[in-house]
Amino acid sequence: MLGEVKINDNQKKIYEEMGYWGKKTLIDYWNECVKKHGNREYIVDDIGNRYTYKEVDEKAGAIASYFVEIGIKPLDIVSFQLPVWSEFIFLTVACIKLGAIINPIGMCYNPEEVSKLLNQTESKLYICPTLYHNTNYEEVISSIKKNVKKLKTIILVDKLKEKKVTIMF
Question: Which intervals hold domain AMP-dependent synthetase/ligase (predicted)?
């Protein structure tokens, strides 16, 4: 799905000389922030959960390790359809740590649109809530998963019950 990124060496040199581009990656910047601001609050989600840089980094590290266990590799596409919950940030940072590509999907997308996006991106992993604002996402993904060719794993985040995560294969 994703082709090789080609960067014009002359243009790259110009951008580097002008200071627009540097040698650091996103994970370099993230690690610097964690080191410098580890105990500073980083996120507050729309249900009141609060996390510091260090807490986000630890959770993202655990998620990235799990992704490796289930076969997610650098440049694999990880799709998630989540509301403004802290898990959105945990997943984003986990993907940056792993080198996976994030494909966040808006909560307003219908099953046909989600199916199309998952196929277009050749997502290997899809993460969504079990239920959110009267939409049963577990039913939605169950109804379309047979039409999504490359999808290997589905993870459901359940905010209705304490600390429940369901994994479907």
Answer: 32-163
